[in-house]
């Protein structure tokens, strides 16, 4: 349903009428028309009037549209940069986490190597002790055997 109104309508009246009108899904063409109407309202022209209180020149409208497009592009660019910075921060955090994990693994490896070295040293000391005791026992046995032989030889 389309209505044509040839009188002047204030922005408040137009907004009230628009709010009272049931909203339906609009096609891209309708959305573009709505945007143009909103732009015209912002420039002083009413969307429901055949004549405006302030005429909008085509080149002014084109300039405004270009400015809006530039603003949207800048916003998209800024959003892209913000997301890019967020990705960089996330990557840096991941790298730091990986470095910390590597350092932790290196520390654990060093600890294991130290423990193994200490254990090998203890085993070596134990072997030396066993060999020394064996040598002492053999020497004691030989001394006793020699004493026994001397005692038997003197009899």
Could you describe the 3D structure shown?
It is a single chain. The protein is an all-alpha fold. It has a domain at 1-54. It has helices at residues 11-20, 28-42, 58-154. It is rod-shaped and about 155 Å long. The termini are far apart. Residues 45-49 have low confidence and may be disordered.
Strand content: under 5%
Largest sheet: none
Helix fraction, binned, reads: over 70%
Count of alpha/pi helices? 3
Kindly name the structural category: mainly alpha
Order of SSEs:
HHH
User: What is the alpha-carbon Rg in Å?
Assistant: 48 Å
Shape designation: rod-shaped
Distance between the termini: 146 Å
Average pLDDT score: 81
Oligomeric composition of the shown chains: single chain
Q: Compute the number of strand runs.
A: 0
Biased composition (Low complexity): 62-75
Region (Disordered): 54-77
Which terms summarize this structure?
155 residues; 3 helices; 79% helix
Short summary:
The protein is mainly α. 79% of the residues lie in helices and 0% in strands. Residues 45-49 have low confidence and may be disordered.
Topology (SSEs and partners):
Elements: H1 11-20, H2 28-42, H3 58-154
